[in-house]
Design brief:
CATH superfamily: P-loop containing nucleotide triphosphate hydrolases
Strand order of the largest sheet: 2-3-1-4-5
Strand content: 5-15%
Structural class: alpha/beta
CATH class: Alpha Beta
Largest sheet: 5 strands, parallel
CATH architecture: 3-Layer(aba) Sandwich
Helix content: 40-55%
Distance between the termini: 34 Å
Shape: globular
Number of strands: 5
Order of helices and strands: EHEHHEHHEHHEH
């Protein structure tokens, strides 16, 4: 059984958020980060697919539609491994609170829906410890879709799963693709003890509960500068 960073004896703690595109998870972890900074905690933020090592290659591959499900999976795994070794682990060893917008569970959900074998995907990420706290922001599909379209007029090709040929209509493709991802998250929620949040609630209500749950589970004074 994989261990959390606390179970590994590291002084830092890692908090991850997961959820569908448009679930509001990024907003919630940003607000948590700002609150922690105001409380003068030692905090670091990392997000999915942000490593300088592979970011350009990922962007180029998406634009030119060059990525098979396997290469899609491996390029994201390379991104994660680079950040894990060069950022996350050193900071956790130094006693930081590390906040992650998406963690290995994103790969467990997306890559499997794209057709990669579940056992293979998990083996690829076997080097990574589990977060100390994982929030899953559970939003209705239509709510997620509305939030995305509120910020921009169209869906992105890959977030709608258009590369999978599910539907010629991007909105219908989004519903099918993200619906399948949602089912993967639900299946993982018990296995990995996700803290399931009602992401359909008001932002302020969700954030208040997030802060309370974090404070209940961690000795936050240890992380104050």
């Amino acid at each position: 059984m994989k261990k959390t960073f606390a179970e590994m004896g590291l002084p830092g703690r890692l908090i991850a958020v997961e959820g569908l595109d448009g679930s509001g998870k990024s907003t919630q972890i940003y607000l948590l980060k700002r609150w922690m900074e105001m409380q003068r905690f030692t905090v670091f933020f990392s997000e999915w697919n942000s490593s300088d090592l592979v970011k350009n290659a990922t962007s180029k591959g998406k634009k030119m539609d060059l990525l098979t499900p396997t290469t899609f999976s491996l390029i994201h795994a390379t991104d994660f491994a680079d950040r894990y070794e060069r950022q996350l682990l050193p900071l956790l060893k130094a006693g930081y609170l590390v906040l992650c917008d998406r963690y290995i569970f994103t790969a467990f959900a997306r890559d499997v829906v794209r057709g990669c074998p579940p056992e293979w995907v998990r083996e690829v990420y076997d080097f990574a410890a589990l977060p100390d706290i994982t929030f899953f922001f559970k939003a209705h599909l239509e709510v997620s879709l509305a939030r995305i379209l509120d910020g921009r007029p169209t869906l992105k090709h890959h977030e709608a799963g258009m590369d999978l040929g599910l539907s010629n209509d991007p909105y219908e493709s989004f519903r099918i693709f993200q619906g399948r991802i949602f089912e993967q998250y639900l299946a993982m929620s018990t296995e990995f003890q996700f803290l399931v949040m009602d992401a359909n609630q008001r932002i302020e209500e969700q954030q208040g509960l997030v802060r309370k749950l974090v404070a209940d589970r961690l000795d936050l004074d240890r992380f104050r500068r």
